[in-house]
Amino acid sequence: MSAEGGTKAIIAALAANLGIAASKMVAFAFTGSSSMLAESIHSVADSGNQGLLLLGRKRSERDRTPEHPFGFGRERYFYAFVVAVVLFTVGSAFSLYEGYHKIRHPEDVESPIWAFAVLVIAIGMEGFSFRTAIKESNQLRGGHSWWAFIRRAKAPELPVVLLEDAAALIGLILALFGVSMAVATGDGVWDGIGTVGIGLLLGLVATVLAIETKSLLIGEGVDAEQEKRIIDALESVEQVDHVIHMRTEYLGPEELLIAAKIAVYHDDTAAEVARGIDAAEAKVRAVIPEAELIYLEPALDEADRRNPAKPAGKATGEV
């Protein structure tokens, strides 16, 4: 994901959520609706989350240190995980508590016109933020489905913003439903039901985010398709017979570590092997630009399986 694209989506979401949070607070003050209060807290939590994503991006750009020789790229994963925790504890838990309280002790919604006006405006603002996130994501997801994009993305910001915005739009619809039913029936229990729905929705989104960002934080490697491209690039070099084994891990969204043991030919000199390693690294970076760190270990004792595509002189293995 480009830094510019991710930042643009985060800032759009932050601006929308700050405006929405303020308008919802005003609506809650006039209506006393628990759905409006839950949505207000939701928007405040989302605004804080976007701030955390921007902070994580900034901190990840620090230079390497002796204590952190691979840099700070995973700061972005850490802060994305914190976002999931905040969304669950602040957004979901509060909404569930407020909804339960409202169902036990229902109250009439006062001045509902404020709630309806603010919710309609908020849906428009949230829709703008969601549209921005979709537009930026479409530049990266290719032919993959949205769920596959969220699962495969190594940069956490766009998936987080996408899920937050989707949850926000659905939450606004739930709030609109709860307030509308409470006004239509005169029963404040519906307001509480809408609030509980918002809490359950936020809990689900927070769980998905926590699972995905936890996996990135622990350390993910490339997928099967990328692994094949890396191996093909390595084995396309004349001095490499085959890849014995390989390990990969993302140190950050734009920094991939590759460590591989490669079989070389017995009759190659050290200089030839060194040239082959340099060529192999260049070919890998050509197909996987984020391959910042590549460590290749040449081996002789397992270079017995000969690639028929290699030159005949190399295939004999004669010393």
Automatic annotation (TrEMBL):
Alphabetical list of InterPro entries matching this protein: Cation_efflux (IPR002524), Cation_efflux_CTD_sf (IPR036837), Cation_efflux_TM (IPR058533), Cation_efflux_TMD_sf (IPR027469), SLC30A9 (IPR040177)
Ranges that cross the membrane: 9-30, 77-97, 113-134, 160-183, 189-211
Localisation per UniProt entry: Membrane
BP GO annotations: zinc ion transport
UniProt keyword Glycoprotein present: no
Keywords: Membrane, Transmembrane, Transmembrane helix, Transport
Cellular component terms (Gene Ontology): membrane
GO molecular function, one term: monoatomic cation transmembrane transporter activity
Keyword Cytoplasm in annotation: no
Entry-linked Gene3D superfamilies: Cation efflux protein transmembrane domain, Cation efflux protein, cytoplasmic domain
Cation efflux protein transmembrane domain residues: 10-217
Topology versus the membrane: Multi-pass membrane protein
Xref: PANTHER family: HUEL-CATION TRANSPORTER, PROTON-COUPLED ZINC ANTIPORTER SLC30A9, MITOCHONDRIAL
Full protein name: Cation diffusion facilitator family transporter
Origin organism lineage: Bacteria, Bacillati, Actinomycetota, Actinomycetes, Streptosporangiales
